[in-house]
Specification:
By secondary structure, the protein is an alpha+beta fold. It folds into five domains: about 150 residues, Galactose-binding domain-like (Jelly Rolls, Sandwich); about 110 residues, Immunoglobulins (Immunoglobulin-like); about 280 residues, Alpha-Beta Barrel (TIM Barrel), CATH 3.20.20.80; about 100 residues, Sandwich (Immunoglobulin-like), CATH 2.60.40; about 110 residues, Immunoglobulins (Immunoglobulin-like, Sandwich). The protein is built from 14 helices and 46 strands. About 0% of the residues have low confidence. This is Glycoside hydrolase family 2 protein.
Length: about 800
């Protein structure tokens, strides 16, 4: 079997039916694109988009893609399939005008067999249709946003998902590696073959070999099971992500019939309420981040370079686990987690049979759920980073007996496909009882509990302490007991009040905080450290995302955005609740969390903007961290009052300006707030424990110069269209200090064999497009993303008023 990337030569347009074109009522031009591609990210955002706060005010739409494919005469008699890693949504694949297959879910990998519809020896048209409209609670994107491959199989071959590698026994001097390989014989003849396997270590050297014959009748399939032994195994872990591979050769005599390779890791998992989660025998507390699937300025596009960058930055920020909220991950993201050492909770669905959006997957769920679970597990099964499968997120049905039946079906389906991982579900007791809570709220009709606009997120944020009382109520305990009982690990959303309660009520229940407020990390992490049955915390969110606009914004009473609900309205773009913004810059909460995790000894300074000093806060949800930033450059505010926050795990902090003490305070819950007056200079925080300095951190006022700096993430790129180069653009004083209060419109040009794939900033409120060559800095920063289209030298030039041009180069080969 051959498996080739199939992402070039495509074009797309908003979908127009032949009848509409014939009648002249509508027409649309085709635009050439290189897959993966998000058809929605370039569409103009509008204030009148229905429920626009969920999608970031991107309208929905229907789109179609087409490609010409030449099927050679030599392909006749072979099985030919297209492998789509994800198409959003309701994908329909046509070959020469004939429907070849469909997929309802927008996040599943799926295969479409196209050889019955091909004309061999000539060109063929492949067309893919898809659509999105009021079907998601966040920005989903649209189109063929993940990779596509062309598979060509001989009649006798290894199955497309036919290789499963497990490591059931691991000892310091030996590991058992079991390899199950499914062989298919679609020919008209009985055949006897030999399967040879070579296991290679992380350095590429052969560490084990095995072989087995297999005989197959016509039209049948069989499984070869090999058991190999690796001496002195190099284990996979977060800190040492050692990857092995197996090379498979299927032969008939001296003739090679098929070849395949698979990457895997040797690692063990253990779980119990006393010692929690253990990987390779060592206890691991999950420092987790929930993430949505978009990649900021790229939209929904998933490419390896983007996912590797995301995982690397999340690890730098102290996370060791991510939860794919709320849909299966892309293959590119799974590969990045394997290679960089990030644990994964891969999630299936945001809804089962009850809708959360007008046209979401709930209508398709009863028919498609089983195939979509199979698709997720088949893709994940050899990835050592995956340790959990989550069967859902905040599913209302989890509070009913029939919903528990559904949960058991899903959990047992997962176990039947993969018994080596743990099954969880992100259950929110509030949502599980929403059928009784909403009527009560509507009946009371008072301001404290009336159902506001913005859906369940707004209701949850408005409840505060009442939320904890609901989660720990006897009714919630009873209604969720069976749904939790079908799981290996009880996933709890915003239910930390249950952790110690359940230790006594359900001694065998193991808990993970599948979704938690970022403002609750201090108490949550203490619960994780103090309780063996609580194995980790997943904050909402590790990385900011498009849609669910403004749930993390701080709104002031004198602001136009101070209105009911969590969204401030158009042109808000992002949720603004991530530890890291949409272009990859760490926000102050990220450093606070790193200190709470015990991973940072130096303090950190976050300065509240002087312009906000004394303003009254109208609204701030538990997802909101505040407006403080790491800057001591506030032009025009000399002599004005300012609040300086210092984060530290020490006992006391001293604040100095140019070496002179201007404040001193006790650290409470890893934070101290010091009131002072803004004056330029170097602001230093010195942390003390028992009178001894434990660390210090500086912020220096930027100088008067204004320089535009361009910093590439790396120099060498692949030239085949599958790579991305990132250029961080920053306005500085020429000495590396960012002019956070000075923003400019930046224009970027790309010369050489590449395109400007996206250009944007972390600004949560903007009308600017990510598809334009101009973008305004936010906090002095923007990010340009280029995509090579061939070999050669690539030059990226950025210009801004009052600055010399910034130039950087890449080499594509």
């Amino acid at each position: 079997m051959t498996r080739d990337i199939f992402t070039t030569g495509w074009s797309y347009r908003p979908k127009v039916s032949a009848f509409m074109e014939l009648g002249g009522s509508a027409t649309s031009e085709w635009t050439d694109v290189l897959l993966p591609h998000d058809a929605l990210i370039g569409v103009e955002r509008r204030a009148d988009v229905p429920r626009g706060e969920t999608s970031g005010y991107f309208p929905g739409g229907a789109f179609e893609y087409r490609k010409t494919f030449h099927a050679t005469a030599e392909m006749r008699g072979k099985q030919i399939l297209l492998e789509f890693d994800g198409v959003y949504r309701d994908a329909a694949v046509f070959v020469n005008g004939n429907l070849a297959g469909q997929r309802a879910f927008g996040y599943s990998r799926f295969f479409i067999q196209i050889d019955p519809y091909l004309r061999f020896g000539s060109d063929n048209e492949i067309r893919v249709e898809c659509r999105t409209h009021l079907d998601s609670r966040w920005y989903s994107g649209a189109g063929i946003y993940r990779d596509v491959h062309l598979l060509v199989k001989d009649p006798v071959h290894i199955g497309a998902d036919g290789v499963i590698v497990t490591t059931p026994e691991i000892e310091p001097d030996r590991a058992v590696v079991e390899i199950a390989v499914e062989i298919e014989n679609s020919s008209a003849l009985t055949t006897t073959l030999v399967l040879n396997a070579e296991v290679n270590g992380p350095d590429g050297a052969t560490v084990a070999t095995s072989r087995s014959p297999i005989s197959l009748l016509p039209g049948t399939r069989g499984t070869v099971r090999l058991r190999t032994y690796v001496a002195q195994p190099e284990l996979w872990s977060v800190d040492a992500p050692n990857l092995h591979s197996v090379q498979l050769v299927l032969a008939e005599g001296d003739t090679v019939i098929d070849e395949r390779s698979a990457v895997f890791g040797i690692r063990s998992l253990q779980l119990d309420p006393q010692k929690g989660l253990r990987i390779n025998g060592e206890m691991v507390n999950l420092r987790g981040a929930c993430i949505h699937s978009d990649n900021g300025p790229l939209g929904a596009v998933s490419m390896r370079a983007a996912e590797e960058r995301k995982v690397a930055r999340l690890k730098e920020a102290g996370f060791n686990a991510i939860r794919s909220a709320h849909n299966p991950m892309s293959t590119a993201l799974l590969d990045a987690c394997d290679e960089l050492g990030m644990l994964v909770m891969d999630e299936t669905f945001d809804m089962w049979t009850q809708s959360k959006s007008d046209f979401d997957y709930a209508f398709d769920f009863p028919e498609w759920w089983e195939r979509d679970v199979e698709a997720m597990v088949a893709r994940d099964i050899n990835h050592p980073s995956v340790i959990f499968y989550s069967i859902g997120n905040e599913i209302p049905e989890t509070g009913s007996p029939v919903g528990s039946i559904w949960g058991r079906r899903l959990a047992e389906k997962v176990r039947s496909l993969d018994s080596t991982r743990y099954v969880t579900n992100g259950i929110n007791g509030f949502v599980s009882m929403i059928d009784t809570i909403v009527p009560q709220m509507q009946a009371r009709r008072d301001a404290a509990v009336a159902a506001p606009e913005g859906g369940v997120n707004t209701m949850m944020a408005g409840f505060g302490q009442m939320m904890s009382r609901i989660q720990t109520s006897e009714q919630a305990t009873h209604r969720t007991e069976e749904s939790y009982a079908v799981l290996d690990v009880a996933g709890m959303n915003y239910a930390e009040a249950r952790y110690e309660l359940d230790r006594d009520l359900f001694p065998d229940r193991i808990i993970v905080g599948t979704e938690t407020w970022p403002t609750s990390i201090v108490g949550n992490w203490e619960l994780v450290k103090a309780n063996g049955h609580v194995i980790g915390d997943f904050t909402w969110t590790g990385w900011d995302y498009l849609g669910e606009t403004g749930i993390g914004a701080t709104r002031y009473s004198d602001s136009d955005s101070a209105q009911p609900g969590f969204s401030g309205g158009f042109p808000e773009l992002t949720a603004w609740c991530g530890d890291i913004d949409i272009v990859g810059n760490r926000r102050p909460v990220s450093y606070f969390r790193e200190i709470v995790f015990g991973l940072r000894s130096d303090p950190f300074i976050a300065v509240n903007p002087p312009a906000n000093h004394g303003r009254s806060i109208a609204a701030a949800t538990p997802w909101a961290w505040g407006d403080a930033i790491a800057s001591w450059t506030w032009d025009g505010f000399e002599g004005r009052a300012v609040t300086v926050d210092v984060y530290s795990d020490a006992e006391e902090v001293e604040l100095l300006l140019d070496g002179a003490t201007i404040g001193r305070a006790q650290i409470e819950c890893f934070r101290a707030a010091i009131e002072t007056t803004y004056r330029t200079g170097t602001l230093t925080a010195v942390a003390y424990a028992q009178g001894v300095e434990t660390g210090r951190f500086d912020l220096t006022t930027a100088g008067p110069s204004l320089v535009l700096e361009a910093t590439p993430d790396r120099r060498d790129l692949r030239s085949d269209g599958t790579d991305l180069g990132y250029v961080a653009l920053a306005l500085t004083d020429g000495n590396g200090i960012i002019r956070t209060g000075t923003d400019r419109l930046i224009t970027v040009t790309v010369d050489g064999p590449a395109t400007l794939q996206a250009f944007g900033s972390g600004n949560p409120v903007t009308t600017e497009s990510f598809n334009a060559a101009e973008h305004t800095t936010f906090g002095g920063r923007t990010l340009a993303i280029v995509r090579p289209t061939g070999p050669g030298e690539i030059t990226v030039t950025a210009v801004a008023d009052g600055c010399p041009p910034a130039v950087t180069t890449f080499s594509a080969s």
